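INTERNAL AUDIT FORM
Audit reference: QA-55
Scope: verify that the stored structure record matches its stored sequence.
Auditor: D.O.
Record contents follow.
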Amino acid sequence: MLLSFALAAAMGAAAEPPKAPDCSYDRAAMLAMEPGRFDQDLEGGWRPLADRGCTREAADLLSAYGALPKAEGNVIITWHEGQLRAELGQTAQAIALMERSHKPVNGSDPGYWNAYVDGMVAFLRQDRSALEKACEAGRDTDAHRDRGEHQGRPLPLHHRGRAAGADAVAAEPGRA
């Protein structure tokens, strides 16, 4: 009898639904920030908003910031919006944003950035051949070869601490 009462009480007590994250922020203050601080400050800018689980709001904020004259030509802001759009499942929009974040060859590309972009786009398109080609191109850049990075392993493609790209297709060497 006591067991029946306990079971009935447990079944009748509904679990509390998870609380929605607090996605409020001072939009005017965010848009007033300088580009480097807005994009790279881990305590300010768009990142804490995304880290609270407010991915859509952070992507929309990046979009608004990217439209400002002071962000013109800042491909990293465009790239980060693309990453968040991918995380939201907005694949076509993510690909378009990522493709806009290519850097001029022999210009501001240190030799691996465009390969990284191409790899992420290939991953989103689920194009293994293009993904492997991008990883090979990234591994073969002077910037990586000169520093001995990756030592013949595929170029890891990371987003917010999670491996992507070739590493999601086949486990990254040295990782469990």
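Auditor finding: record pair retrieved intact. Residues 25-101 form one domain.
Action required: none
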